[in-house]
Amino acid sequence: GKVLGPDGRPVENFEILTGPGKSSKDRLSVPSVERAFKDRAGQFALGLNQRGSTWIGVRAQGYAVWELWTDVAPEGLTQVVRLGSGVPVSGKILAPTAGLTKIQARLVPRRDSDDGRGLGSDGTAKSWAALSTSVTADGILRFDHVRPDGYTLHFSGPGVTPLALAIDVTATGLDLGQVRLAG
Length: 183
Description:
Blueprint: E1 2-4, E2 13-20, E3 33-38, E4 52-59, E5 66-72, E6 80-82, E7 87-94, E8 104-109, H1 122-129, E9 131-134, E10 140-146, E11 149-156, E12 163-169, E13 174-180
Parallel strand pairs: 1-6, 7-13
Antiparallel strand pairs: 2-3, 2-4, 4-5, 7-10, 8-9, 8-11, 11-12
């Protein structure tokens, strides 16, 4: 396959994770494949030989994570991946000021555990596509290059009660406004 940016030019450095879905009969015997590529033409070859439902994820610095569910046929699959820049998710965190910079935020794609997806485990695909950031000293939270989708936003850190919010990121991004974390 080939990985391109929004302008149609090749992306030279990227990572791919792929593996069989829960509905694939081979999901327990076929491990997921994760590889890093550096290619001026943005080309890659995975050599997948399992047939059936397969999840493919591509990530590259400066772009939103790209995901696709497809069926791999006996003759294989050629895929052109067009990465997008994604959108921002931002907000202001209200918490005890002494620990603001120790607060971690993690944006994890929401998946229905009964939808037949996952690489033998929903956790593998979700973790791979998750984004993490720290809160700044003035309480600002910002994720860049987020793919519009449904997410769970987790907050944790010393001195704050962990919090998880279900959010939907639209094509224009998301401003969370103020989020208060209890101490």
